[in-house]
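Quick one, T. Sequence first:
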Amino acid sequence: MSKGSSVSGRFKVTNARRAAWALGAAFVISVPVYLCAHIAGPDPRHTAAPGDDPLACATAGCHTGLPKGGPLPYPGNGAVTATFSSGTTYTPGGGPITITVAVSDPVNTHYGFQMTARLESDLTNAQAGNFTATAGEIVLCDNGQVKGNSGCPANSQVQFIEHSRAPFQASTTPYTFTWTPPATNVGPVHFYVAGNAVNNDNQPDAGDHVYTAQYVLQPLVVSVCTNTAIPVITSIHSLSGFGDFPTFAAGSWLEIKGSGLSDPADPRPGGLWAQADFNGANAPTNLDGISVSIDGKPAFVEYISPTQVNVQAPADTTTGSVAVTITNCNATSTVFNVTKANLVPGMLAPPSFNVGGKQYLVALFPDQVTYVGNANLVPGVPFRPAKPSDVISAYGIGFGDVTPAFPPGVVVNAGNKLTNSLAISFGSTPAAAINYLGLVQSLTGLYQFSIVVPNVPDGDYPINITVGGVTVQQTLFVTVHH
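Structure tokens:
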């Protein structure tokens, strides 16, 4: 759920139109100098796409304080994001898609951007579709000229849409424009976008913060639906490896079981979502025509089959009985009611870790290879007991909000921390410390707890976990040996 060859990031500026990407750099009116942008936005090839400057406008001599350029992205909690009115797909020959670009930064409030769209068959030089600017943007061809009514010339077809505010006035609000898809199915289209949050000091310096992102739109190909069954839901539980609870919370992972849920002829490998199904950091709400509604809100669909669909529950403050429906390519199921609570914490402890009638918690040492437990607890898997002061990691779902916030369906890209209080004990002895308690980066909806084992005698200890006053309703054990 996560970029190309480099070209020179230095461009000779010979007229008064060119200045800094920030829209706030000094206006060049005399001798030629080297900068990387126009007052209306950067020169072409500053998106960090393949064939573009890999540092975007954080290249040397531009918005950077380092002789060699960078950093990119600027470290911290800033980002450039793009949303597409079509979600994660485009319809070949279809109408224009509205794109909204925004930049967030913990310090700077004004920003500009540049975006390009490329064919997967040639990410460096093959233009995909056609950008149309509205008030506040301009479209440049690869030769630096403004795109005309007839488009860009054959030898400079790659387009770059970017900010075009009045001189020296970067935007504080999102940019919205359109992109018209290709007339035929050209395969996946890759969008690359760079954003620059500026400090308005009229200098392209290290006070400006540059970020990049990329998105992929898949062609929406209408296929023949062979599923004549109306979907029927027979049960809904949290993931079986995390407690298999009949209740759930916002952001929980659910197993929906029944019949006729997806098309038996669906060719999706393994039934699982793929990177191409994501819109940037946003998980899909539809896989091959299969969607799920929970309390009237779209869930995030991770796995589909005729008898089971796995989803992450959307953000929702409702508690109590809520309605769930599933829609396949033929019809929508009748409502299935399930109970929703504020917190329904569950820890990873699959049936394979139930040995001798005792359910062991899945816990890993920092090598992320060795599991906590007696040797040969599970044949063919490396195990060793934990010692006091060892750091072990366990995983869960349904533990609630974190800060900074990462809502359900969004891939986590930074460290974070549970907002609810968390207590973990080995029997009656509290953990020596909890070094990390938050969502796992690069995933969505999975929590990690880095636990320091307390000084307790040898033995199997029940792990007691409480979050926000709610106790994990699983009886789980961890083995400790000095």
